[in-house]
Specification:
Layout: H1 2-15, E1 53-55, E2 58-60, E3 64-74, E4 80-89, E5 92-101, H2 109-120, E6 127-133, H3 138-143, H4 166-177, E7 184-189, E8 195-203, H5 208-217, E9 221-224, H6 232-238, E10 242-250, H7 256-272, E11 287-296, E12 301-305, E13 312-313, E14 318-323, E15 329-334, E16 339-345, E17 349-350, E18 355-362
Parallel strand pairs: 5-6, 5-7, 7-10, 8-9, 9-11
Antiparallel strand pairs: 1-2, 3-4, 4-6, 8-10, 8-16, 11-18, 12-14, 12-17, 13-16, 14-15, 16-18
Helix pairs in contact: 2-7, 5-7
């Protein structure tokens, strides 16, 4: 009977155009004091918000991205110079990953890779934090120069010092503000000195977590490269972090194939780390190498390449031919062993002894990470 009466009253209220009273279970009805409205005293669960990301005295709120500038010093004109960063701080917890490019100021493919990666990720959907440093060598980038104004190589100046040379100070700043706050890093490079490189990852393949990320990245080849004194990779490994070094393309040029490979590889790596969660195409199955070697010109003249990037070659196969200006053959450059061309000169004019073609010997089987000390023999000359 009570149920029917309630229904009748509701229908009557609807007929008068009044809003029907929302049914409230008896256990939820609260008596209000005269002249006061009823208040729902049910407590809501507090919303958990991820803490801001702090870097260089700045705080980046969860779910936001911010541009931050790390002061380096002043130019001789008094104009301040800063290392620019983009910090993308996700709403969910996760690893901190840094992306860096243009440690050599004329290596600009990595700058474009980072731009495309930042365009693809969204701070609210991120689990973790991405620190992007697209132009580390600001001085060299502005003058299209590989080195700093004093001629020093920034990638031979790590971990740096707060009171050393300009290169040493920038290296120290990068280690302090970026590397030490991160779990994983990807440093992006190209060939140097009129050389171009096949897209490749250089890392320690005997270290399990590093090999896993190299596999996920999906570059055409992974090279077991020894640590170089003063390099960012050496300083990063000594700091207990994981780092992949990507090489692809040439300096002072945009190489579309290298940029596409690098961008896809970075996005796959972020996905694998759980930083992002979107459909990422599976990368190609990488080849592996523990040794590489340059073949050099035996005569000065004009060089014509016979084998190009990514081409499989056999021992004693012709890689290039050197001519004089009148078409006479001066010399033929041949491969030292079976392998794949991972780099070559872009200069048409060569002197005797110049490096012409870079060939990597391919391992018959993919490496099994043993956590041991790498035995790499990387003969690339920088």
């Amino acid at each position: 009977m009570t149920k029917k009466k309630s229904t009748a009253m509701t229908a009557s209220s609807d007929a008068l155009g009044a809003k029907p009273e929302r049914a409230v279970p008896p256990s939820k009805k609260i008596a209000a004091a005269p002249g006061h409205d009823v208040v729902n005293t049910k407590k809501r669960s507090p919303k958990v918000t991820r803490a801001p990301f702090e870097i260089a005295g700045q705080r980046v709120t969860a779910g936001k991205r911010m541009r931050i500038e790390l002061p380096i010093g002043n130019l001789m004109s008094g104009t301040p110079v800063a290392l620019p960063l983009i910090v993308v701080h996700g709403k969910k917890d996760g690893p901190v990953v840094w992306l860096s490019a243009a440690i050599h100021g004329d290596e600009i493919c990595g700058v474009e890779i980072i731009r495309q990666v930042l365009d693809a990720i969204s701070a609210p959907a991120l689990a973790g934090t991405v620190i992007a440093a697209p132009v580390v060598n600001v001085h060299g980038f502005n003058t299209n120069d590989r080195y700093l104004p004093d001629g020093r190589d920034l990638n031979r100046s790590f971990p740096g010092s707060p009171r050393g040379s300009l290169a040493s100070r920038i290296a120290y700043l990068f280690m302090k503000e970026i590397v030490k706050r991160s779990d994983v890093g990807i440093d992006l490079h190209t060939g140097a000195d009129l050389r171009t490189n096949l897209p490749q990852i250089r890392c320690d393949v005997d270290h399990g977590p590093t090999l896993e990320l190299a596999d996920i990245f999906g570059a055409p080849i992974v090279i077991d490269a020894r640590l170089r004194d003063g390099s960012l990779r050496q300083a990063t490994v000594e700091a207990g972090k994981i780092m992949l070094l990507f090489e692809g393309g040439e300096a002072s040029r945009f190489d579309p194939a290298a940029i596409a490979t690098g961008t896809a590889g970075v996005l796959r790596t972020l996905n694998h780390l759980g930083v992002t969660d979107f459909d990422a195409p599976i990368g190609q199955r990488s080849l592996y190498s523990r040794s590489t070697s340059w073949s050099r010109a035996s005569n000065s003249g004009i060089v014509h390449l016979d084998a190009h990037l990514g081409e499989l070659v056999s021992a004693k196969q012709q890689l290039a031919t050197v001519y004089d200006p009148f078409g006479k053959v001066l010399g033929k450059i041949k491969s030292k062993y079976d392998g794949i061309v991972i780099g070559h000169t872009q200069a048409p004019l060569v002197n005797r002894g110049d490096a012409i073609s870079h060939v990597a010997r391919i391992m018959s089987e993919a490496p099994n990470a043993s956590w041991g000390v790498p035995g790499a023999v990387d003969t690339e000359e920088r």
